[in-house]
Amino acid sequence: MKNRVALYLQDAHDLRDGLDYVQYAEQKGFEAVWQAESRLVRDAIVPMAAYAAVTEKLKVGSGVINNWTRNIGLLASTFLTLDDLAPGRIICGIGAWWDPLAKNVGIDRSKPLTAMKETVLILKRLLNMERVSFDGEFVHVNNIELDVVHGRKEPRNVPVYIGATGDKMLELSGEIADGVVLNYCVPPQYNLNALEMIQVGAKRAGRKLEDLDLPQLVVCSVDNDHDKAIDTTRELLTQYLAQQPHIAKASGVSMDIVHEIQSILGWPATHEQIQKAKHFVPEELIHKITASGTPDEARAKVKEYMDNGCTCPILYPVGGDVHLLIDTFAD
After folding, report:
1. Domains of the chain
2. Which residue, among 307, 71, 35, 4, has the nearest Cα to 163 in the 3D structure?
3. What global pTM score does this model have?
4. pLDDT tens-digit profile of 159-193?
5. Which of 75, 102, 163, 305 has its CA 20 to 30 A from that of 38?
């Protein structure tokens, strides 16, 4: 069986360059591209449509949108639309978002598990072309269905993957999702506990761990110059550890380092602030939680994630030559 591999794109590249990257990844045997939607920068849906339009076999996933900001009817019709553009190639990756960002735009993330469960269950029913009434704590719909007058009326094959980091969300994902997008900036050993949690949820639903797909985001900086690759990753980690505390916690980084970085970085962080704070990120940490270095070093690290249960690495090129990264992991 061939090795599965996917590409992850965020906002570090020109959007039109992204079209070139996904076409190149498809040529080189990559299985999927996942588009991020995290900070208040690039939304996932517009690039996903563009990637779907310029490829023929590549799967296109949201990696990940949040379950708070799109009404359930809009969410379902959005993924119906993407599936119209690329039938059978769309994946809905969805996550619980994070504070302080959610709070800063007026979202109260109370009961994140209940909110996620309602969203995923009703989304799946709508994409199954059912007529749905549901009065939950977060999702309220009355006798609605996807209103297809022209075009395909059959149920849509859009698998739903939950981007889960904490134990309880991992457990819920095992119970209700088609797959789990395991997080990045964690050591490979993080997966062992994650798989246990997913298995607990799967068992509750009468499923086995093998019934779920478990791709994983992996920060990947590849350069023929080892030091250059490491420095690129250091800048990314500086920003992530300060702004996404749930990732810092999962990666096992000392809170002292996080607080030092936070004291320098504003929001949004400037290039100057990142340069000033980046020396707080030790090289040992970069090797522990990312696949950074020469092509051989990056491949060896990704293999560690695979050996710890990741079914398909989703490689996040944090800078440098994206074509080199694709070539490094091509069949």
Report:
1. 6-221+292-329 (3.20.20.30), 225-291 (no CATH)
2. 35
3. 0.92
4. 999 999 999 999 999 999 999 999 998 999 999 99
5. 305
